[in-house]
Every structure is written in structure tokens, then in C-alpha cells.
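Need residues for this backbone.
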């Protein structure tokens, strides 16, 4: 069954069998092909697109059209992985109708299999409406970047009793609303463990410790594509920034000193033709 598509049923089975779900973010076709070939279970087209690819300093400017454009590119590169589309700022708050309509675009126009959205009890009515339309929904609790101005920065969430209780009741409300999975971002390890043991759906952690049912990271962070400072929870699995910078310097040097392009990179033509056109 290694060739078959990852579905919400796969998520359910993996939680039951205690096999960790692997998820990574992706925003374009080439990376989607690589992540799918590597057997990553789920690909999140995150609204971190804003930070990682579009150069904004938050996820708030990202629009539905931005997201649809990138989800389309990702889906063209994927055979097996589940593609989850992150719903951007204000695309699921205004009404049940707009929430369903926007979620539907990701499946109908772009080819995703599920959507993700941030928040707890306050979004549950709209989550239910999306689920009722036959669209699998992944929740997202803890550090929810679209609320950065309300949280007063990117900080660990759920540390005090009130916040921890709120997170637990939000998780239960999302389950009641029909989500198949919940991302837990930047929450203390023991709280993520408690939520994971309390809910029947698959929890996916980012900065939430090893006891979640799965893990997600921003691919550009774990590959260190930018050579910048990353949040504490990011492990660098490669240092691509250095590799890319070395390649760029080598190219510049070789073009400037004339060693590139050497003969092997050029095309020849017959001398006859050359002589003829020179004689004209
Ligand atoms: N490249 C990238 N990676 C991400 O993980 C990510 C984005 N972009 N954009 C959207 C959000 C923003 N995220 C962030 C951003 C910063 C921290 C951060 O600096 N956290 C502090 C915690 C401070 C504390 O409360 O102790 C850290 O040091 O990790 C965490 C998550 C996660 N998401
Ligand atoms: C960090 C993940 C969970 C996310 O929401 C994103 O990449 O936008
Ligand atoms: Mg996001």
C-alpha cells in the first residue's frame, strides 16, 4: 500500500498504532516533489508562506488568492502525501458561508485534501459548517500566529492554569466540531502530552515536545535555507544556506575569471557553415 494516498483514515490508524505522523510545510512544486518522494505523510501549505516565501514579517498579509496559487503548484508535485491548505487571516471568521466557500476553493480549485485553521471555541461553528460540507479540517491551537497582535508576540502558550485549561477545552470543542487533527504550536511538553492523551484525533506538534501523535516544522527552517536565527524548537537537519552561498560564490568567481563556461558547456557547428557566413 506504499503507493496509496494518505487520508484522514491513515491519520486515525497511525494514532491507534502509535506511528508518528510526519508533516512539513511546502509552498512550491519542486519541494513538493521532494517531500512526497521522501514519504512525508502530510504536506502543509502554510500561511507561513508570508514569512518564508513572500517576505512579509507576519502571516497577516497573506490572501486566499496567494494561498490558492501556491496550493495549486504543490498539488501538481504530489502523488501520495495528504495536502493540507492553511486558511489565511480572516478567511474563516466572517460567516459560515464564506468559511465554507474559502475552504472549498482549496479542494475544488487547487486540489488539496484538507484545510487547517487557527483557533478554538470561537471558530467551532464555522469548523462544523466546513466539515458538514465534506471538507476535512485540521485545527491549530497554542501559538496561533494570525493572532500575534493579541498574544503580544510569538510566545509559548498555555503555561498558566487558566491558559492550560482553555487550551484543553478548545481542543475538546474542536473535536466536537469534527476536526480530524489538531496542530499544537509552542505549548509546554506536558500539556501537549495531556491533550494528545485526551483527544481521539491526531495531534501534530511544533515546539510541543515528543508526545504528540505527529510533528511538523517549517521546511525552510529545518533545512536552514536562510542562515538566520530560528525559534528554539527548530532543529537544523541540513545547512542549505551555506551550501547555496558557496555555489553562488563559485559561479561568480568562475564567470569573472573566465573558467566558466568551458568547452564542455558549449555547442559546436561545422566549419563550412562558419566560413560561408563569414564570407558574406
Ligand atoms: N519560518 C517560520 N517558521 C515558523 O515556525 C513560523 C513562521 N515562519 N511564521 C509563522 C509562525 C511564527 N512562528 C514563530 C515565530 C517565532 C517564535 C519564537 O521566536 N519563539 C520563541 C519563544 C519565546 C518564549 O515564549 O519563550 C523562541 O525562542 O522559540 C515561535 C514561533 C511559527 N511560525
Ligand atoms: C507552522 C505551521 C503549523 C503553520 O501554521 C504554517 O506553516 O503556517
Ligand atoms: Mg499557519
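Answer:
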Amino acid at each position: 500500500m506504499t503507493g496509496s494516498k494518505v487520508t484522514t483514515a491513515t491519520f486515525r490508524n497511525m494514532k491507534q498504532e502509535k506511528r508518528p505522523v510526519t508533516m512539513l510545510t511546502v509552498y512550491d512544486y519542486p519541494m513538493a516533489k521532494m517531500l512526497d518522494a521522501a514519504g512525508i505523510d502530510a504536506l502543509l501549505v502554510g500561511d507561513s508562506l508570508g514569512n518564508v516565501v513572500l517576505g512579509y514579517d507576519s502571516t497577516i498579509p497573506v490572501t486566499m488568492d496567494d494561498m490558492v496559487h501556491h496550493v495549486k503548484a504543490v498539488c501538481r508535485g504530489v502523488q501520495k502525501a495528504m495536502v493540507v491548505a492553511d486558511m489565511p487571516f480572516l478567511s474563516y471568521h466572517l460567516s459560515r458561508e464564506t468559511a465554507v466557500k474559502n475552504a472549498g476553493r482549496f479542494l475544488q480549485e487547487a486540489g488539496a485534501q484538507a484545510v487547517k485553521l487557527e483557533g478554538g471555541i470561537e471558530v467551532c461553528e464555522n469548523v462544523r459548517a466546513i466539515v458538514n460540507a465534506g471538507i476535512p479540517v485540521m485545527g491549530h491551537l497554542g501559538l496561533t500566529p494570525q493572532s500575534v497582535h493579541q498574544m503580544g508576540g510569538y510566545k509559548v502558550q498555555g503555561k498558566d492554569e487558566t491558559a492550560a485549561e482553555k487550551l484543553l477545552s478548545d481542543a475538546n470543542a474542536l473535536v466536537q466540531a469534527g476536526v480530524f487533527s489538531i496542530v499544537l504550536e509552542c505549548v509546554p511538553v506536558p500539556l501537549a502530552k495531556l491533550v494528545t492523551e485526551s483527544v481521539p484525533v491526531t495531534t501534530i506538534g511544533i515546539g510541543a515536545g515528543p508526545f504528540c501523535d505527529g510533528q511538523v516544522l517549517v521546511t525552510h527552517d529545518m533545512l536552514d535555507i536562510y542562515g538566520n536565527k530560528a525559534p528554539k524548537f527548530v532543529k537544523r537537519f541540513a545547512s542549505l544556506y551555506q551550501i547555496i552561498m558557496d555555489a553562488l560564490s563559485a559561479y561568480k568567481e568562475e564567470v569573472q575569471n573566465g573558467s566558466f563556461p568551458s568547452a564542455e558547456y558549449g555547442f559546436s557547428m561545422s566549419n563550412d557553415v562558419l566560413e560561408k557566413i563569414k564570407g558574406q
